[in-house]
Design goal:
23 helices; about 10% strand; alpha/beta; binds adenosine-5'-diphosphate; 4-stranded antiparallel β-sheet; elongated
């Protein structure tokens, strides 16, 4: 129940500026929108400068109609151009966010399972919902920077033309500005990194604990939960305070710089006026240009800070996108007759965490076309073995073969489509019962096929009794159905895919014993001639299997038929005795 500001899913990883920029080569950017925005920005600079000239004339009292109308026109034009810039920028940034989010979702779907677990699903949710919104900032900022640099240079030239000496004094202040803003930029990076980490911590905490609120209430743990939640809220609060502080610091550094410039103009300008080197209105007129220069300079430096901030916000997503990915279509096809081949494990070792093996040097054969039961105590690696068979995880060493084909060389998607996989708890998705049963089958499915699968899973009866039958909404995660009903729908879903291999991992645990036995028998009949692998604790189902594998602490303890194991495996006999099947065992031994 450890909580900290930084979750394991968000462990900080190296994210260079290069990787940051290379992120933007991974999906199409609507350059044309940003280019239009840039061109409009450049035009706007000229309009702003023209308006400044009218302002200077007005300041001098040259209030001719042409000047007033010119000033009004330029001001209106600037507003119109700014609106055009905003439209292009907004549309462009939304498009970038949309495409980056699509890219990230695709990546998450293709992450190797080990990566999903290492990064934690809730962190991934936060990445795709929150972090990615920052992606568009960079493109927008880069274009805006070009426009600001142009504006800055043009205004500097006009300012220098107006008064070269006073402009030279202003140049002396540039290093000060660069130094201050670079420092603020560094802080900005750390601030955004922390902000998005804390956002993740909150998302992770609340998504896990709010969905388990039933258990919190059942255990009367509200008070402890309150404290845990407050810790996540605190983290976010501190990060937001830091963010607010950074904004104040940014505004302060801008104001400070402008103020120092104004003071310098006042000191040097008044001296020049006294010496007759500048007209009396000189300071005022020069300040008009200086104001524009300051504005563009502040823009450039703010863009830099924003780039650094975005680098912090995008770190998690950037590292994730640069990480390993599984290509479901890379590899060989399986031969057509593969369903009749044995599954062979050759010295397979595997661990979820490095140096902590779960399966040790496992060699065994799952015979084709038969029902094989796997037994062993909790944690002995039974479920892990089923996941390896489907290529959800890859062995650390050793090999799995399906007949002549090495599983790791077969297209992952092709391999997995060979298998039907029914777990103790199977997720259903929001939608109707029909949607859930047909999930996993592409194209249209005949109603009769859906009904047939439901009948095999002993689900047709209860579904037809529901007011909307197969169109009944199952709720989020199937929450509107009972555990047993969910399980039958999930079994129907798997059978509809007509798998070559069927893997059942405690599939009957949420069913009553009678239903479990009925479904098991029907499924067995339906799968006749195909390979079925069953992980079960109920020894009455195990005894019915054609072949039985006994695992102990990730190693093979025994394998054979029921009769063989009665003779050779004390562990197997022990399991039978514990469940009151001793008589059967003794009879067979005799
Ligand atoms: P069984 O099905 O025999 O009860 P499992 O195959 O589920 O056992 O688990 C074997 C071991 O692997 C256990 O020690 C378990 O804690 C560990 N384990 C299972 N799943 C994971 C996972 N996703 N990450 C880390 N360890 C896991």
């Amino acid at each position: 129940m450890k909580r900290s500001g930084q979750t394991e899913g968000r462990a900080r990883e190296k994210f260079s500026f290069r990787s940051y920029i290379s992120f933007y080569t991974r999906f199409p950017i609507p350059w044309w929108l940003f280019l239009i925005s840039l061109l409009l920005g450049l035009v706007n600079t000229e309009v702003v400068l023209a308006a400044s000239k009218y302002v200077i004339q007005i300041n001098k009292g040259e209030l001719y109609n042409g000047v007033i109308i010119g000033y009004a026109l330029m001001t209106v034009l600037t507003s119109a151009i700014s609106m055009g810039i905003n439209i292009c920028d907004e549309y462009g940034t939304q498009k970038v966010t949309y495409r980056a989010r699509k890219l990230l979702w695709r990546k998450i779907l293709h992450l190797p399972m080990g990566e999903v677990e290492r990064r934690q699903p809730s962190s991934l949710i936060s990445g795709v919902v929150n972090d990615i919104t920052q992606a568009s900032q960079v493109i927008h900022t880069i274009f805006a920077t070009v426009s600001s640099v142009y504006g800055f240079a043009r205004c500097c030239v006009e300012m220098a033309k107006f008064n070269a000496r006073l402009s030279a004094y202003m140049l002396l202040l540039v290093p000060l500005a660069v130094g201050v803003f670079a420092l603020v930029g560094r802080l900005q990076y750390r601030m955004m990194l922390r902000r998005y980490e804390s956002l993740n911590t909150m998302t992770e905490f609340f998504s896990e604990h709010i969905s388990a609120v039933k258990h919190v209430k059942a255990q009367a743990m509200e008070e402890l939960e309150m404290e845990e939640g407050l810790r996540a809220i605190d983290e976010r609060y501190k990060a937001d305070l830091y963010y607010a502080f950074m904004e104040v610091l940014q505004i302060f550094s801008n104001t400070l710089y402008t103020t120092i410039g104004s003071v310098a103009i006042a000191i040097f300008g008044s001296d020049m006026i006294r010496k007759g080197q500048m007209p009396d209105t000189g300071i005022n007129d020069f300040t008009t240009y200086k104001g524009k220069v300051d504005q563009y300079q502040a823009e450039i430096l703010t863009h830099y800070q924003s780039l650094k901030g975005t680098q912090g916000a995008m770190q998690y997503v950037g590292v994730l996108l640069g990480g390993p990915e599984e290509d479901p279509e890379a590899g060989f096809e399986l031969p057509e007759n593969q369903g009749n081949a044995d599954i062979v494990l050759e010295r397979v070792s595997f661990g979820y965490i490095p140096q902590q093996p779960v399966l040790h040097d496992l060699s065994l054969t799952i015979p084709a076309g038969k029902v094989t039961a796997i037994i062993g105590s909790n944690g002995s690696g039974k479920s892990t073995l089923l996941k390896l068979l489907q290529g959800i995880y890859q062995p650390d060493s050793g090999r799995i073969r399906l007949g002549a084909a090495a599983a790791d060389e077969v297209k992952p998607a092709r391999l997995r489509r060979q298998f039907g996989y029914i777990l103790q708890h199977n997720p259903l998705f929001s939608g109707s019962i029909r949607d859930n049963i047909t999930y996993g089958v592409s194209g249209t499915v005949e109603d009769e096929a859906v009904f047939q699968a439901a009948r095999l899973a002993d689900a047709d009866g209860f579904i037809r009794e529901l007011p909307q039958g197969y169109d009944t909404d199952v709720g989020v995660g199937g929450s509107l159905l009972s555990g047993g009903q969910r399980q039958r729908v999930a079994i129907a879903r798997t059978l509809l895919t007509d798998p070559r291999y069927l893997l059942m991992d405690e599939a009957g645990a949420s069913l009553d014993h009678k239903s479990d036995m009925t479904i098991f028998r029907t499924v067995r009949e339906h799968m006749k001639g195909r390979t079925v692998v069953v992980v079960a604790h109920d020894m009455r189902s195990v005894m019915d299997a054609d072949y039985i594998i006994v695992l102990a602490c990730g190693s093979l303890e025994a394998a054979g038929t029921h009769d063989e194991l009665l003779r050779t495996s004390p562990t197997y006999r022990n399991y039978l005795e514990l469940q009151g099947c001793a008589l059967a065992g003794e009879e067979a031994v005799r």
